[in-house]
Amino acid sequence: MNANSVISLINLLIKLCLYSLSAVMVWENTMSVGVLTVILTFYGYLTRNVSSVSQRYLDSENRISYIQKIYDFLHTPTEKVWDGKDNLQVSKGKIEISNLYFSYNDQSITLKNINLISFPGESIALVGKSGCGKTTLAFLMLGFYKLQKGKILIDGKSLNECSLKSIRNQIGLVQQNVLIFSGSIRQNLLLGNIHATEREIWDACKAAGIEELIHSFPEKLDTVVGNNGINLSGGQKQRIAIARIYLKNPKIIIFDEATSALDLETEKEVLRYWKKLFSDKTSIVITHRKEVALACDRVAVMNNGEIVEVESVDKLNQTESAFQKLFTSEEKENA
């Protein structure tokens, strides 16, 4: 039940109590009909104003999250303030995270003593309740925040020593909300590699399963998709994201809730393309869905900023694991 529903319910209960009490007092001749009319009139006026104030308060709460996002964006490290200058070259895709701590402020720690190794070509799912630090950990790998304590090594090279440009060139990111500009399909795909040839673009489309769709458009690759891809479905946007990453061809890919907005059948189809195209890539998959996590090689369970369990998918169903407890509790909450 959201805040609006709670406020409406409280108003309804107060109104029922007031009506019941007034009816009893009128019946017992302790209140005249005129007084009752005045009371109800002023009550209606009062509740409208209270509802208006409540709605404005809720709107201000929503705006705080937007303000926080703007603040985070404005304080995202740039190449000018980033200390690392070396060029990151990823040949294998091994990720080593050791003794990592991170905090957005000095009062609370977001990530605590994170230790994790992802081997070349391995896919690891990061699961946990909302706010446990999964996305923060991924954003640290991409240089969206500066490391405060601990290390992240890519093929033995510390991210702190590497330039932001080389980090983001070598690590790909696929998110839930795929960034689609109002230009053509070609222009959106070239975000992955501006130097891609016509043949390479079509190979990427074929690999991502959208070649047939694009051929159905009169303008083919030059079809304008509309602002934020308004003319495309969620599954089609995800396939464009897959084709874009295919053109970029990074050794490491981070999937941040990339399928959470898709229905089950579309998700299964997208996962099938992922496994086929990126089997040789190191993948970090952030997800709330059990099916997506079980499609990976290993699963890391996070809770309150810590990794509490790292286990292979084969062993997860054999023990009373933190993974099983997490999804059992979520299934009960959603029941």
TrEMBL record:
<dbReference type="GO" id="GO:0008234">
    <property type="term" value="F:cysteine-type peptidase activity"/>
</dbReference>
<keyword id="KW-0788">Thiol protease</keyword>
<feature type="transmembrane region" description="Helical">
    <location>
        <begin position="12"/>
        <end position="45"/>
    </location>
</feature>
<protein>
    <submittedName>
        <fullName>ABC transporter ATP-binding protein</fullName>
    </submittedName>
</protein>
<dbReference type="InterPro" id="IPR003593">
    <property type="entry name" value="AAA+_ATPase"/>
</dbReference>
<keyword id="KW-0378">Hydrolase</keyword>
<dbReference type="InterPro" id="IPR039421">
    <property type="entry name" value="Type_1_exporter"/>
</dbReference>
<keyword id="KW-0812">Transmembrane</keyword>
<dbReference type="InterPro" id="IPR017871">
    <property type="entry name" value="ABC_transporter-like_CS"/>
</dbReference>
<dbReference type="GO" id="GO:0034040">
    <property type="term" value="F:ATPase-coupled lipid transmembrane transporter activity"/>
</dbReference>
<dbReference type="Pfam" id="PF00005">
    <property type="entry name" value="ABC_tran"/>
</dbReference>
<dbReference type="InterPro" id="IPR027417">
    <property type="entry name" value="P-loop_NTPase"/>
</dbReference>
<keyword id="KW-0547">Nucleotide-binding</keyword>
<keyword id="KW-0067">ATP-binding</keyword>
<dbReference type="GO" id="GO:0005886">
    <property type="term" value="C:plasma membrane"/>
</dbReference>
<keyword id="KW-1133">Transmembrane helix</keyword>
<dbReference type="GO" id="GO:0005524">
    <property type="term" value="F:ATP binding"/>
</dbReference>
<keyword id="KW-0813">Transport</keyword>
<keyword id="KW-0472">Membrane</keyword>
<keyword id="KW-1003">Cell membrane</keyword>
<dbReference type="InterPro" id="IPR036640">
    <property type="entry name" value="ABC1_TM_sf"/>
</dbReference>
<dbReference type="GO" id="GO:0016887">
    <property type="term" value="F:ATP hydrolysis activity"/>
</dbReference>
<keyword id="KW-0645">Protease</keyword>
<feature type="domain" description="ABC transporter">
    <location>
        <begin position="95"/>
        <end position="329"/>
    </location>
</feature>
<dbReference type="InterPro" id="IPR003439">
    <property type="entry name" value="ABC_transporter-like_ATP-bd"/>
</dbReference>
